[in-house]
Here is the input.
Amino acid sequence: MKVIYTDVLVIGGGLAGLRTAIGVCRRGHDAIILSLVPPKRSHSAAAQGGMQASLGNVTKGQGDNEDVHFEDTVRGSDWGADQQVVRMFVNTSPKAVRELAAWGVPWSRVRQGDREVIINSQKVTITERAEAHGLVAQRDFGGTRKWRTCYTSDGTGHAMLFAVGDQAIARGIPVHERTEALALIHDGKRCYGAVVRDLISGDLVAYVAKATAIATGGAGRLYRVTTNAVICEGIGAALALETGVASLGNMEAVQFHPTGIFPAGILVTEGCRGDGGLLRDASGHRFMPDYEPEKKELASRDVVSRRMEEHIRKGQAATSRFGEHLWLDITLLGRAHIERNLREVKEICQYFLGVDPAEQWIPVRPAQHYTMGGIRTNHTGQSPTLRGLFAAGEAACWDMHGFNRLGGNSVAETVVAGMIVGEFIADFVASPKGEIDVPTALIREAVESERAKLDALRNARGAERADAIKIEMQQIMTDRVGIFRTGQDLELAVHGLQELLLRSRNIGLRHRVDGPNPELVTAYRTQKMLKVALCIAAGALARNESRGAHFREDFPRRDDATWLRRTLATWEKPADTLPCLHYEPLDVMGMELPPGWRGYGNKDYVDHPATATRAAEVAAMRERLAGGDRHAVQAALMPYEHLLPERLRGRNERIDEALP
Amino acid sequence: MTTEHTPPVAPPVSNAPLRKLRFHILRHDPRNPASVPHFEKYEIDEAAGMTLFLALNEIREKLDPSLAFDFVCRAGICGSCGMVVNGRPGLACRTLTRDLPADISLAPLPTFELIADLSVNTGKWMRGMSERLETWVHALGEEADLRRIEQPMDPDLADRIYELDRCIECGCCVAACGTARMREDFVGAVGLNKIARFALDPRDARSDADMYELVGNDDGVFGCMTLLGCHDVCPKQLPLQTQIAFLRRKLARQALGRSRPEKS
Here is the structure.
């Protein structure tokens, strides 16, 4: 049996995993990254439009700061987020942009003087300040009050991933490419690493580490129609779930992006609408202002996606041979703008649709896009129930997105979480708590158990086909656990998925080799994916309210009185067919921004009994400190800075805000 | 604005009857001593809007579960699915079958280590290239104070760097390169483009002389035979021809000792 020892095992080679590994290495610890694919091919590369950070360089971003970013994010989350974690995030995001700038990301920059932009379908001239010339530029995105999204044309994720990937190479961090973790090694209290399969040779290796960090991204491929890459199958979440000890938070919170191209589901960025693009129906009518007079096309994603499906239900969709869809019109932005700032969009339209978006409209329909839920951690990124297990990025629920994530906050979260969690992991492995004393029998048994499962799969003569079960699961998720949900549909979904889970235990393979064997991979992944899908469906069935992206037609109101709490799912025994659901309440009395109306979407909600008290308390405190320093006001309302790693504390300098 | 009255323009849909597609796929498992490289034939029905991503998945699902190939983003941005399509390297995910004849031959990218069938180890090659050429910003001084406003950069220069930064390391340029077939250590257009990208970047402290050390030889810019297959096949239309010519001039000047010490 081969065993590899290291300080920190990072599972996942996208932006969150890479940045986490860099963080622990710069503190003097060893790390190994496992990646299904070469890291620069990770799904992080697909982030197009940009990363939110309140730099406030552009004219339309003037007055922006952490406070505004904080409020936008909490409103976006429909008050599901952990507000202290949001504060940690918004204070670190400008530092992340500046670190990436130093590492070579070619951020698009501000040019001083007049420029013409499209706002609410009107041409407007704005003037950029001379003192901002050459600084990182920001564009508009949904659900934000300021232009805050920093970008590199529409290849932001690509540029970030290459810069961070190259930093990992510069530091000599080993990436074990084409390897896949099959199970965590643990004793029910502490995690010791993972059993890992080499996808080329089929060999199993035990990786033993003081800390194990899961940064495997989202679970979009549980759905048939998704913007996600084919590797985003929620396997990291399943690894944690299968321990029976670690929990998954808010898995029912699944985001649907308004503009997946139809029918392929490939993403075109929110930057299209941020830069002035419009949504139109079959007759060419711009319909969003009818539903959302305040934010129009730039309400949060959950709201825009719902309004689009609502409009389609009213019979206003365009139709093609593939079905019903709506149109995204960016022709008004002009060819020069598209070829400079939306060039990936142009390529995607050209190759996959045969459309020139400077001349023609783009067929779009909402598609699964983001997994707000994930492995439940505290603010340090560590599982509260399985010591030594950490998670960061989309795979984690530490929980900065609540029930809806704002555009531009995910690629920002990857690097910010990597910076923060990387520091905490370094602290952990350097401390006595980080020591491990692992029985070799535990390692051997973990490897033997995975070997036995693989052999059983390879030798089984079961009647079930893995890919057929996977496709049925994806269909159930898209049909019944989508944008509009009902109790009836969700019950059918849960039962259907349970049946599939049972059937998946009777899979037979046609191709039995142990090396590069795509059918074997589909088989063991499908068994894992079904458990994660059941967490989503069961969580959605239990949550009798509508919050953020979770919308129940039979319970259309947000119900803070009952549901201002986080769903936690665990999988107690391997033979189970349902997760156990538990709940942890959010503390209204500790909130800096007590629950209210988001500023877009449904105005009808049920208050938590403590909301009025806390709102009065916050108002009184604000009044008492009125005219004072905004940092002092913030610190009085909800202190958080002590939660940040020391290296990342401190204010952020802006043109309009000098450091003290 | 009068755009409310612009008629929506539907994507063009070919009226040609859908065809039977015959795929001829090069199969081989180098880890299996009994495996002999050979073309295997698969026949499937073409569908509207079918890409090679969809076609290969259908073949694997319905006809042959053992067929190995790589896709990740399936949107033309991650560079995983480079393969030789009817003799020409390209990204399979964004190749539409309607642009190909009914007989389609697929082979793995040459030059790279074969994993199986259409899957090659571009990742290992690219990491090796990155380590040799040190494809990262070599910072000028101490780490930046992250609380401070970032260093300004000319907006046009940022755009020019991004233009070269768009490389997705798919390996098509290496597969199309005559020199790479003959010289195992040739850095390829992908490597030369990276050097050009960092040479352009004022945040990188390396001088022309440093760059000469990295690519001023026959495994670098002087190994290029100017066949420019790289330029023709690059899926991102990077200006590889211009960059190679530019580097060659710059480094020849450097070799002759006429370079300015600072970046031009």
User: Anything to note?
Assistant: Chain B touches chain A through 77 residues (CB under 8 Å). The longest helix of chain B spans residues 240-255.
